[in-house]
């Protein structure tokens, strides 16, 4: 009881303040605008796996209603119940934090919550900060319900080795990686074929292509909003200095922005600003961002950073004759260097206060089953499962094959820190100034100095 009372007090903070997060949210898919939905999975006649005869087992699952819709969750719940006999009370909503908040303040928690980091209300970050997320490392050794393989044998390499899944750096997994989207530079493959151009492998090749395009009245680059530079910057940091530099940068290590690796990143972004369509900053907002995306479809810019959801987002938009979507990882810093594509992914987790943890773990394990992944994929939600690209078709097959075609996966984000007077968000400090670079309102030196000053405060106020 004391545990629930303490956690209730902690959770009340979630709904009165917006916790700062480590990613900007600019690269996440748009939230579905449908009304909230709550549903109960139908009862199944299938007997529970290990429950005594006649006993009833059930769990509660709260899932974010995102751009993939809600139908897939109902189907997965039905399949899970049919396989295990465990019934599921499913709640979905586009503002799921507000729906489950009152009960959690009273000490009643869903057994599984599918809400990722980076949301405005910072629910997941608050649970992480207060150590109220259950250790689910043993799920990796569990057999996927209905199959003969372990969960660890299904999940693609690297997805359980990041700060997003292992926030305490103790070698254990606390958040399960779900629907993922490779992020990279999207372009008109039809135009490249027409011109005889190839996607650049290095930044030197990128600048050469920029000059060729400029001669034909086409800018090299645009971006929807500065928020989309989060995935871009993360991949760039990996390219410049590998995982070690990325980890030091995202935890604001002292002196990290004075390193050669940091200078490479700032020099590339500054030069890219010179090649960016000048109309971009004026349209880089939540209202007009699709107009910047339209620049790619109209052959007014060659590349833009984005995620695979762009296909659906611009499905009805007009486009140049012969347009075909293409996507490439960020170019390598030098010949023979590594190229990276940032991977954005959702997370699911179990609150420490959940009453049915073991059955909740069975549910999470089932999410990596072939049955579940097929249901999710039909709605465009792709699980981080080994060889998943082999089961995809069309554009998705191209995009999700990026890691099989030489690109390395960049994962992780900036560490969260406590709100402090005079200290902006990660987006305000690291990303928004790109607009000023493109418009000429600030210099790279000003931007870098501001980052150094902010990083000192961030490091001193790490959560």
Number of strands: 10
The total number of structural domains is: 2
- CATH level 1 class label of the largest domain: Alpha Beta
- Characterize the main sheet: 6 strands, mixed
**Residue share in helix:** 25-40%
Q: How would you describe the shape?
A: globular
Going by CATH, what is the homologous superfamily of the largest domain?
A: Periplasmic binding protein-like II
The CATH topology of the largest domain is what? D-Maltodextrin-Binding Protein, domain 2
The Cα radius of gyration reads 23 Å
Average pLDDT number: 86
Query: What's the total helix number?
Result: 17
Beta-strand level of the residues, as a percent range? Answer: 5-15%
Pattern of helices and strands: HEEHEHEHEHHEHHHHEHEEHHHEHHH
Low-confidence stretches: 1-54
| Class inferred from helices and paired strands | alpha/beta
CATH architecture of the largest domain: 3-Layer(aba) Sandwich
Terminal Cα span:
26 Å
List the defining traits of the structure above:
single chain, alpha/beta, 17 helices, globular, 6-stranded mixed sheet, D-Maltodextrin-Binding Protein, domain 2, 37% helix, disordered N terminus, 463 residues, 2 domains
């Amino acid at each position: 009881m004391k545990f629930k009372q303490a956690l209730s007090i902690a959770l009340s903070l979630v709904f009165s303040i917006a916790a700062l997060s480590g990613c900007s949210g600019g690269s996440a898919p748009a939230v579905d605008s449908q009304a909230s939905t709550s549903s109960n999975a139908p009862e199944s006649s299938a007997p529970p796996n290990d429950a005594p005869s006649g006993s009833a087992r059930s769990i509660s699952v709260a899932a974010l209603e995102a751009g993939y819709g809600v139908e897939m969750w109902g189907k997965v719940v039905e399949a899970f119940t049919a396989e295990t006999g465990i019934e599921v009370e499913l709640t979905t909503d586009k503002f799921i934090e507000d729906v489950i908040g009152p009960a959690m303040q009273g000490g009643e928690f869903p057994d599984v919550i599918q809400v990722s980091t980076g949301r405005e209300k910072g629910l997941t970050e608050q649970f992480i900060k207060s150590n109220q997320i259950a250790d689910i490392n043993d799920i990796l050794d569990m057999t996927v319900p209905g199959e003969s393989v372990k969960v660890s044998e299904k999940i693609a390499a690297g997805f359980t080795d990041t700060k997003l899944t292992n926030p305490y750096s103790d070698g254990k997994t606390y958040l399960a990686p779900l629907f993922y989207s490779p992020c990279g530079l999207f372009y008109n493959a039809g135009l490249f074929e027409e011109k005889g151009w190839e996607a650049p492998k290095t930044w030197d090749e990128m600048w050469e292509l920029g000059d060729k395009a400029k001669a034909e009245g086409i800018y090299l680059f645009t971006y929807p909003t500065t928020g989309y530079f989060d995935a871009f910057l993360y991949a760039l940091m990996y390219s410049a200095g590998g995982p070690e530099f990325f980890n030091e940068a995202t935890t604001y290590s002292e002196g990290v922005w004075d390193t050669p690796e940091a200078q490479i990143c700032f020099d590339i972004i500054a030069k890219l600003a010179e090649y960016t369509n000048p109309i971009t900053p004026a349209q880089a907002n939540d209202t007009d961002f699709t107009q910047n995306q339209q620049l790619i479809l109209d052959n007014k810019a060659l590349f833009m950073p984005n995620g695979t959801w762009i296909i659906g987002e611009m499905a009805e938009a007009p486009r140049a004759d012969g347009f075909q979507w293409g996507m490439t990882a960020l170019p390598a810093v030098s010949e023979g260097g590594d190229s990276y594509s940032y991977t954005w992914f959702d997370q699911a987790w179990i609150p420490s206060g959940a009453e049915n943890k073991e059955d909740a773990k069975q549910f999470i394990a089932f999410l990596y089953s072939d049955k579940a992944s097929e249901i999710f994929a039909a709605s465009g939600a792709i699980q981080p499962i080994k060889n998943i690209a082999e089961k995809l078709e069309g554009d998705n097959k191209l995009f999700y094959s990026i890691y099989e075609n030489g690109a390395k996966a960049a994962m992780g984000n900036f560490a969260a820190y406590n709100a402090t007077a005079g200290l902006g968000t990660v987006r305000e400090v690291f990303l928004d100034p790109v607009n000023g670079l493109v418009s000429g309102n600030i210099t790279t030196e000003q931007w870098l100095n501001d980052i150094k000053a902010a990083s000192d405060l961030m490091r001193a106020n790490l959560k």
